[in-house]
Amino acid sequence: MQEAIRKASVLIEALSWIQRFKGRYVVVKLGGSTLDQPEAVDSLLTDIVFMASVGMRPVIVHGGGKAISSAMADAGIEPRFVEGRRFTDPETLRIASTVLVETISTKIVEVLRLKNATATGLHFQSENVLIGEKLKLQNAAGEAVDLGHVGRVVDIDKDLLVRICSTGTIPVIPSIALDREGHRLNVNADTAAAAVARELNVEKLVFLSDIPGILTDLNDPSSRLSHVTAGRVRQLIADEIIAGGMVPKVEAALDALDAGVRKVHIVDASMPHSVLLEIYSDVGVGTEIVP
Ligand SMILES: Nc1ncnc2c1ncn2[C@@H]1O[C@H](COP(=O)(O)OP(=O)(O)O)[C@@H](O)[C@H]1O
Ligand SMILES: CC(=O)N[C@@H](CCC(=O)OP(=O)(O)O)C(=O)O
Asked: Which of 1, 28, 119, 170 is least surrounded, with the fewest CB atoms within 10 Å of its CB?
C-alpha cells in the first residue's frame, strides 16, 4: 500500500510540471557519445514519447560524430577537425549525409514508432528544416580557414516544424542543412540544436552528453554545478575550467539564451530517465544554465 501511495505522489509531483509545460516546445540534442549507448538511447526516447504524450512538443536534433568518423575510417579517410568542426570534402559530405540521415535518423524514428509514437525524419530526403550558409572561420592570424562543405544554420522552416509538432508528431532532425541553392552543408549538431531552439523560442534546450553536467573538477562528479548563470559559464570558459567538447556545447547554449530560450540543460544520457527527472521533478539531475 505504502508503495502504491508513493507512486501516486510521484505522479502528483509531475502534474504541476506537466500542466506548466503543456504545448511548449523542448529541443533535445543527441550526440555521438549518447548514440553509442543503446540502452541510454532507448530510455531517453521513452522519456521523449512520454513528453509528447502529455502534450509537450519535443523536437530531436542529432549528430553522430563518432559514427561519421568510423565510416570515414572504413573508407580510408582520416578525419580532420578545425576548431571542433570536421573538414568536409565532397566524399566526407556524402558519408556524413548517409550516416546521419539514412542510418541514425531512420533508426531513431523507427524506435519512436515502436514505442507507439508518431515520428518523422526532417531532412534533405524528406522535408528540409535547416537552412544554412557556408561557415566562414578565421585562424588566430586572421586568415580565412576553408572547412569545405561546413555550414551554420541561419534560418529554419518554422512553419513546417510547428505544423508537424501540432499533430503530436515528433520531428527528428539530423545536422545536415541546405543552403539557399539546395546544396548540403555539414553542421555541428550542438549549434544546429541551438539554432532550432532559438528560432522556435523554446521553453527548454536539453543537451544529452556523457557527463553528469558542468563540473568544476572533471575528476569529481560531486563538483557538478546544478544551477549556473550565463555570466558564470563565460568565466568558467575564460578560466579554462570548461574545456574541450564542452566549449561548443556551452557556447551554443549561451547563444540560445541570448536569443530568448529560457533554460538550457546539460544532462547525462547514461543516467536512466535523466531528461524526465530534469524537466518534470524537483530533483534536477544535470546542470541548468539560465540567462
Ligand atoms: N567543466 C567541464 N564539465 C564537464 N565536461 C567537461 C568540462 N570541460 C571539458 N569537458 C569535457 O566535455 C565532454 C563533453 O563534450 P563532447 O564529448 O563533445 O560531448 P557530446 O559528444 O555528447 O556532444 C565531457 O565528456 C568532458 O570530457
Ligand atoms: C561540421 C561538423 O563538425 N559536423 C559534425 C556533425 C555531427 C555532430 O556534430 O555530431 P556530435 O553531436 O556527435 O558531435 C561532424 O561531422 O561530426
From this structure: 1
Q: Is 4 a member of any domain?
A: no
Residue 8 maps to a domain: no
| 15 within domain boundaries | no
Cβ atoms 176, 184 nearer than 8 A:
yes
* Most informative mutation of 83, 190, 210 for ligand 1 (most atoms within 8 A of CB): 210
Task: Record the pTM.
Answer: 0.94
Residue-number span of the structural domain to which 274 is assigned: 21-290
Query: So what's the ipTM on this one?
Result: 0.95
Closest C-alpha to ligand 1, atom 6: 246
For 211-269, what is each residue's pLDDT tens digit?
A: 999 999 999 999 999 999 999 999 999 999 999 878 889 999 999 999 999 899 999 99
